[in-house]
Amino acid sequence: YSSVAHPIFDEQGDFNGVVVLFYDISDLKKYENLQKEFFSNVSHELKTPISAIKGCSEILLNGGLKDQAICEEFLTIIQNENLRIERLVKDLLLINRYEHDQIKHQTQRLEVNYLLNDCIQNVQTIANLKHQTIDFVEEKKYWVEGDYTKLQHCFLNLLTNAIHYSPDETQIQIKVSEKSTFIEISVIDHGIGIPPEDLPHIFERFYRVDKARSRHTGGTGLGLSIVASIIEAHHGAIQVQSELNKGSCFTVQLPKLLK
Ligand code: ADP
Q1: Whose CA is nearest to atom 20 of ligand 1?
Q2: Rounded to whole angstroms, how far apart are CA atoms 27 and 35?
Q3: 3-state secondary structure of 139
Q4: Ligand 1 in contact with 202 (CB < 6 A)?
Q5: ipTM score of the complex?
Q6: What is its EC number (predicted)?
Q7: Which atom of ligand 1 is nearest to the CA of 191?
Q8: How many Cβ atoms sit within 10 Å of the Cβ of residue 25?
Q9: Cβ(221) to ligand 1 under 6 A?
Q10: Model-level pTM?
Q11: Which helix (H) or strand (E) element contains residue 243?
Q12: 209-219, pLDDT tens digit by residue?
């Protein structure tokens, strides 16, 4: 608790007493702690690629430039670490925008199959590189209300994760079904899966199951937390089921529009 004391004076201006107000600041403290944790995570995430870039540049400038193989190796590291910083900054800007945006202002009626086909087309090239197929059978048209760009961002993220965290030549499926009040969209992969102890945390900011594995794929650990906040802003829900070395299924529920 925090307290503030106010003196009280009577009509003649004589001191008459004190009113002490107590404020419950536990929510504020919690918010401050979250903010501190966020900044310390961001700094940590930036520190690693920055020192890698520094180290590589030093090696190149201290004689490494004379050796073609060393040049290629260290310039590739510099390029990759630079991409990491770029991705991190992009995700941080998205978090900032989504948290301060009034999602209501950009909502429109949108057709789910159209949105999903658009997302599939966007990731098709990276799926092709891994000889993966994306299987999606349209049954009927489903309508939801939402912000097209933000929902597109969600499904692109789920699809990109499914591709990244699955071996070559596997199949990714998208299933859409209709429930009483919502539309359910599942992205299913047959990839590496998520250990049960990590499942409750994967929607948290900066959470990665295996840092080395995620680093290899260039992830920031922010993707799913952004997806969850977008779905929440659409009054929807997101769930995950996963089995290690079998695959994962991410299910998004969005309120249904009748027509
Ligand atoms: P990242 O940028 O690291 O991919 P995300 O927030 O998108 O971060 O995901 C958090 C973590 O959840 C990832 O590091 C990864 O370990 C795990 N994950 C997400 N999607 C999948 C998936 N389809 N299969 C296996 N693991 C996944």
Answers
A1: 161
A2: 12
A3: coil
A4: yes
A5: 0.97
A6: 2.7.13.3
A7: 24
A8: 13
A9: yes
A10: 0.81
A11: strand 237-243
A12: 876 555 555 67
CA–centroid distance, residue 100 to ligand 1 (Å): 25
Q: Which residues contact 254 (CB under 8 A, 6 or more apart)?
A: 112, 144, 146, 151, 182, 183, 185, 231, 234, 236
Q: Which residue has the tokens 């937390």?
A: 225
The full length of the chain comes to 259
Nearest one of 200, 204, 197 to 224, comparing CA atoms: 204
Please tell me the distance from the alpha carbon of residue 131 to that of residue 120, in angstroms, as a whole number: 14
Pocket test for ligand 1, best of 89, 123, 203, 224 (most atoms within 8 A of CB): 224
* C-alpha distances out from residue 126 to 123, 213, 246, 255, Å: 6, 18, 21, 31
* Ligand 1 pocket member 248 (CB < 6 A): yes
CA of 90 relative to ligand 1 center, distance in Å:
17
How many angstroms does the Cα of residue 70 sit away from the middle of ligand 1? 32
Phi, psi of 182 (to 5 degrees): -140, 165
Q: Which amino acid is at 152?
A: Q
